[in-house]
Design a protein that fits this description.
This protein is α/β, with parallel strands linked by helices. It is about 50% helix and about 15% strand. The structure holds guanosine-5'-triphosphate and magnesium ion.
């Protein structure tokens, strides 16, 4: 394999090469590791946004909407879906699928799913490395979609600058479980499916636990401007913190 050539194509943002390198990393290939080392460090200013929450809460649908908004600002967007059953295109209603199909033809959008394969510590490692590759490839916004169960809660916090936890009404026990894990790492909590019964109660409940709760109906785009603003505000805080640290 011509590692030098692959490195150059990754740096140029070539999607197939980016995908190839991520596969090498996933397979814990020695060439992949060597290439990764060669590509670091990057002076990327990418915003890494973790979108996590229970299966079916609407994470992919929300991401599809966010991608549309960021593309309007001409940002290059990448999506890594880790162990989700519906990596962005799947599981969504027809309307979402059509919207994501648009994205899949858009060279400014890179979509990739990754399996954690249940390896202890493997999710964090491979995901962090894949994010590194995407930064090198020049993406401005990198979404990491994970199911927020078990260890993934903590791992997403080490990878993403902004962690968005997605809840939905009617989860009951699952919302209780979230309080113990996910909410501790959340910067923004989204109550999606606000068109469903019980949304107000879920919002009230979660508001007691966290400062920033955003109400959305992802399928209709409701609450999306508020979510985009909340993400931008948090990213601004991160950048100010970084400046202080680098002084
Ligand atoms: N009523 C309603 N349905 C929604 C809303 N957002 C998403 N859905 C639907 O909920 C289902 C699951 O949405 P996804 O976006 O695939 O959810 P997800 O969290 O990515 O699911 P996994 O990746 O499997 O964990 C789809 O059928 C969506 O159309 C919403 O705001 N209201
Ligand atoms: Mg999904």
């Amino acid at each position: 394999m011509d590692l030098e050539a692959l490195a150059e194509r990754v740096k140029a943002g070539d999607a197939r090469s980016v995908s190839r390198l991520i596969t090498l990393i996933e397979n814990q290939d020695a060439d992949g590791a060597a290439l990764l080392k060669r590509l670091q460090p990057s002076n990327s200013k990418a915003e890494v946004i973790g979108i996590t929450g229970y299966p079916g809460a609407g994470k992919s649908t929300l991401i599809a909407q966010l991608v549309t908004a960021y593309r309007r600002q001409h940002m290059k967007v990448a999506i890594l879906a880790i162990d989700t059953s519906s990596p962005v295109s799947g599981g969504a209603i027809l309307g979402d699928r059509i919207r994501m199909q648009e994205h899949s033809l858009d060279s400014g959008v890179f979509i990739r799913s990754m399996a954690s394969r249940g390896q202890y510590g493997g999710v964090a490692r491979a995901t962090a490395d894949a994010v590194g590759v995407l930064k090198t490839a020049g993406f401005d916004i990198i979404f990491v979609e994970t199911i927020g169960v078990g260890q993934a809660d903590v791992e997403i916090a080490s990878i993403a600058g902004t962690v968005v936890v997605v809840a939905a009404p009617g989860l009951g026990d699952e919302v209780q479980a979230m309080k113990a894990g996910l909410l501790e790492v959340a910067h923004i909590v989204v109550v999606n499916k606000a068109d469903r019964e019980g949304a107000d109660a879920t919002i009230r409940d979660l508001s007691e636990w966290t400062a920033r709760v955003v109400r959305t109906v992802a399928t209709k785009g409701e609450g999306l401007p508020e979510l985009i603003q909340a993400i931008a505000e948090h990213q601004r805080v991160l950048k100010i913190q970084d400046q202080h640290l680098s002084r």
